[in-house]
Amino acid sequence: MFVNIVMLEEFVGKGCGSMSDKNNLISIACNPEQSAVIEACAGSGKTWLLISRIFRLLLSGIAPHEILAITFTRKAAQEMRDRLEKILIDFTKFDDCQIREELLMRGVTEAEIDSFIPLARGLFEKVLSNPQEISIDTFHGWFSKISQAAPLTSELNIQGVIRDDQARMMQEAMESWWEKLGRGEGEFADLKLKYLDLLKIFSSSALNELIVGKSSLMQQKATWDLFENHCLEQQLSIEDVLKEQFPLASLPNPLEHLYDETIFNWGGLQLAADFLNNGGVSDVKNANSIKEIILKKQSNTPSKELIPLFKSLFFTKDKETKVKDAFTKVSGTVKSYLNKNNQSHLESEIKDIYKKWVEQIEAYMSWSTDVELIECNLRWVDLAKSASEHYLRYKQNNRLLDFSDFEYNAFRLMSDEKTAIYLQERLDAKYKHILIDEFQDTNPLQWQILKAWLDGYQGASQKPFVFLVGDPKQSIYRFRRADARLFELATQYLNENFRAKPFDHSTTRRNPQEVVDVVNALFNKVKEEITDYPYKKHETLWKNPNEGYITPKVFRLPLIARAQLPTDDLERNSLKVPMVDRNMKVDSIQSEEEIQQIGRLILHWCKTEWVATGSESEPKYRRPHLGDFLILVRVKKHLQVIEKVFNQLGILCDTPRTGGLLQSLEALDILALLKTLLIPANNLTLAHVLRSPIFSCTEQDLEALALYAKHHQKNWWTGLQLIENERLKNAFQVLNAWKDLAKFLPVHDLLDRIYHEGHILQVYASTSHELIRAKVLANLEAFLLLALDTNAGRYPSLSRFIEELEILSKGDLQESPDEGEMQEDVSEQDEAKAGSSVEDARFVRVMTIHSAKGLEAPFVFLTNANTKNKSAESSGILFDWPLGENTPKGVCIYKSKPSADFVTNLMKIEEGIAEKENWNLLYVALTRAKQCVVVTGLGKESTVSNPSLVHDGSWYSYLMSTGMRELSLDDALDQSKVCLEHDVPKVNDAEVVETTDTLVAFPVLPTILTGVTPEMQSQLMDERKKSSVSYAQELGTAIHLILERHLNEAHQRRTLATLPDIKTLQNWLQIDSKVMLDAFEIAQTMLSQPHLLNFFDPNLYINAWNELALIDETGSLLKVDRLVELNEKLVILDYKLNIPDPGTDSMNQYETQLKRYADQISKRRPDKNVEAYLIDQKGNIFFIEL
């Protein structure tokens, strides 16, 4: 039976109001004749509501193509499609009773159900048979469709190749612009002067970011056009707007008449200097500075040269400029002098003199700031517009598009009256229902485009129905210009113009009460400081299905104290003891300890905790697998530390190292190989290749090669051809053959040959640790695909491809090639298993909080929570776009200090949004947890005056102040006692599900559905008989690979689990599909034999080795399939497809071989007896007399 992914009946009834109430959430959200805006908290089922509304629309007769659903990522759009398809398919399988129940949950009344049952069952067929599908798309995807629907007269760049690597394309496009700017000829002469002027104010990196960066005009072309249109409507130039923004610049220079003694009290300044001369050391120093200024005045020095002296005299040089204390009060020494000379009445006069001069200098500073900002902005506008127009021409000339073009084209089309009418007619004829998910992530421009379309319905009798759903508390994409304030604005607009009913829902079904209590306490405190923060008290419908199994946990681990960096041992042996890594940071050492604690908890909880699966009516329980653990990071700074520690602990993890492919070791190996083929005389790349797994040369081999080359005065490549070393000679022959191929083969074809002839995947599979083998193979495959994907595979030479990779490796990490994807799709069979997850159960998920939005996990770790909130950028671009206005009213670039009132006011708005987003991030992190939340952090440096490790204002400090309990690691481990299987409580007949991670599933194994019919099996057997010898060899190799990989992993985890599915093994081990099925079944048969468990189950033996290599006295290599150490003996296992009869030649050969193995092992381990066995494909075992 279909189990609802998000909403159970109790949730629908209690969390959303009574089903008989027409104003309950379900009745509003799923009503096809009602527009609605739903603001719902995390875990409340927003996506379920949206999918259910689409289902109800289809059920009510709305055609699929009349529905438009918009979300913000392609992944989210695909998830919506998949979930809708699943619901439609499920309804084809349900009986009438089940359909009745599901329809009631989606707001269908009892009176309507009977007529809707046959319709619901036939919806899937109806959708499939419709020639036009439901539009479920991203904003950019929808904007693209708007562009494609534009009339031919629109003159927009709407046709072309879409480039995902926008940063790379911008770099290519702007190379010629920067070259022209550098030469400074023609129209660029003036631009170069303006650029050099701006360099006196901004750093080169900051200035380049303003001109061609992520927030530059070329990235905000539509917003800039809106602003220019505003200027045209108001009949204002850009300079006029800037003068309005910075009004002080229109006033006279406050120090224009600095030498006019009727305006400026020079005499008073001299008087103050005379009295300061009778003060302390600092008073005398200030007196001398004043005298220097007065002398310059008397010598008629240009007045502008005195201004820096006045600033230095009166103001501090701190980040925040302020008046020096010496000029806000009279010092005690001067006071004593005045009192002694009966001149104490002059104290107030001196302070007034100071105050007046300070005010006049401050007035000048404010005026000069406004003047400077106008001049800077005018220079910047000319540079930025030139760069933006150049970039636009480049894309048009090369027929290229990026994602910003979609927004720009949609804006231009919807803002032009003629094209807007044309498009609205086409859109109106198509879309009758508009649904937008995660509306809090909308930016002003996206809302403006959508609103321009909806405004066309003013006064119309028929309007589309609009459904918005979102949560302002989960708005965390300000870096994409998202503005959560638009949610309230859109709610009001849709209510007034489309009669949309607003509904606020703060009941979650995801989080246990313990998590909700912490969230409520925390955000009640946040609301005390940010009064308009959009938080309402949360409730939960989460119920502990069984306290005998599930124990929700919410706590923080103590902060990791700061450690001392290690120092170099001056007397170390530099050939044996590595030098200290000077790049190591204190926080990296702290982070390593933080992750070690998390890793220990994960390993412990995999054995002691339980996870609930199934439904409330049919609960099932299993031990956690690694996929149940989610580790959240704010930034990717310490990802390598996480990977390192987890590898040491034997924990598989999947980290978001975007752009990491070209930095992976295996990709660097292949890149070094290609460089060697291009320039063989490069000793460094040649050494890299020879030491890589491709050739596996030893350090001694390379040392011999280096000595040979030095002695004969040759380079290494020449020495490689002549040296008497078998391994090196073989390497030369292979490399030389590939070098010849590189002269004429396209890069991808060359790599394909290298992979095939060098057995690259097999070599790396056999040499990689089982923890990283899947990732290594995926990366190698991704590198091969890179030769086709990058620049569409158009490379005239190997050198051009290598140059492109070098550029990519040094470019924007967000657009560098990602590492290979090692997670396989979960089959329908796997999804049907109780407790399965769409996430890969084998890996701990390590994600940024931004990436984790929309996900959930039983166990959530929030790391590095003791950090200060990120400070504002020191420079940037600000658009003054008041909330609710159709266009921006102003724009400026800025430097944080000094700043004008206009900039300060806009920065306060941005800082307010940033402060809310900081708490939104924490809200998203905490609400991912279905069962447990653990918060960790790195302690700050403590001092004698402030010994605390906690940063004021950090998440950790707030959680601590709200009463979140602290547990030491030992206490956290002690709270979960190891529970043996026979001690597990069996309560209410709940089913305990055995997982592949922690519980042994042998000897009974599930049937593997391969899709092979008996007829196909017969055909395969006939084909195999034609080449039985080669097939037997391939089959034997495949069995050995499967057993080696699986038993290595079992030994590492100390748990014998079921084999992964066929697809997973084939992807990991690159086994030929023609032998995979037989190899899998034979390996499964062997592993499932009860009489062999002593040799395979890690809990039943002391130690074990697979594919153990031994060298005998003659230098021959012996390879033992498996050696197992038991309490009283060592056992040699040799895998054979068939065991020959005793006395035959084959059996005699096997006995001789195993005796040689036993002899070598006995010499190395004389402490135990050695036995040897043959094991065949059916699990039969044969004892060999030694």
UniProtKB/TrEMBL annotation:
<dbReference type="GO" id="GO:0005524">
    <property type="term" value="F:ATP binding"/>
</dbReference>
<dbReference type="InterPro" id="IPR000212">
    <property type="entry name" value="DNA_helicase_UvrD/REP"/>
</dbReference>
<dbReference type="GO" id="GO:0005829">
    <property type="term" value="C:cytosol"/>
</dbReference>
<dbReference type="GO" id="GO:0016787">
    <property type="term" value="F:hydrolase activity"/>
</dbReference>
<keyword id="KW-0547">Nucleotide-binding</keyword>
<feature type="compositionally biased region" description="Acidic residues">
    <location>
        <begin position="815"/>
        <end position="829"/>
    </location>
</feature>
<feature type="binding site">
    <location>
        <begin position="40"/>
        <end position="47"/>
    </location>
    <ligand>
        <name>ATP</name>
    </ligand>
</feature>
<dbReference type="Pfam" id="PF13361">
    <property type="entry name" value="UvrD_C"/>
</dbReference>
<dbReference type="GO" id="GO:0043138">
    <property type="term" value="F:3'-5' DNA helicase activity"/>
</dbReference>
<keyword id="KW-0067">ATP-binding</keyword>
<dbReference type="InterPro" id="IPR014016">
    <property type="entry name" value="UvrD-like_ATP-bd"/>
</dbReference>
<keyword id="KW-0378">Hydrolase</keyword>
<feature type="domain" description="UvrD-like helicase ATP-binding">
    <location>
        <begin position="19"/>
        <end position="512"/>
    </location>
</feature>
<keyword id="KW-0413">Isomerase</keyword>
<dbReference type="InterPro" id="IPR014017">
    <property type="entry name" value="DNA_helicase_UvrD-like_C"/>
</dbReference>
<protein>
    <recommendedName>
        <fullName>DNA 3'-5' helicase</fullName>
        <ecNumber>5.6.2.4</ecNumber>
    </recommendedName>
</protein>
<feature type="region of interest" description="Disordered">
    <location>
        <begin position="813"/>
        <end position="835"/>
    </location>
</feature>
<dbReference type="GO" id="GO:0000725">
    <property type="term" value="P:recombinational repair"/>
</dbReference>
<feature type="domain" description="UvrD-like helicase C-terminal">
    <location>
        <begin position="548"/>
        <end position="854"/>
    </location>
</feature>
<dbReference type="InterPro" id="IPR027417">
    <property type="entry name" value="P-loop_NTPase"/>
</dbReference>
<keyword id="KW-0347">Helicase</keyword>
<dbReference type="GO" id="GO:0003677">
    <property type="term" value="F:DNA binding"/>
</dbReference>
<dbReference type="InterPro" id="IPR011335">
    <property type="entry name" value="Restrct_endonuc-II-like"/>
</dbReference>
<dbReference type="Pfam" id="PF00580">
    <property type="entry name" value="UvrD-helicase"/>
</dbReference>
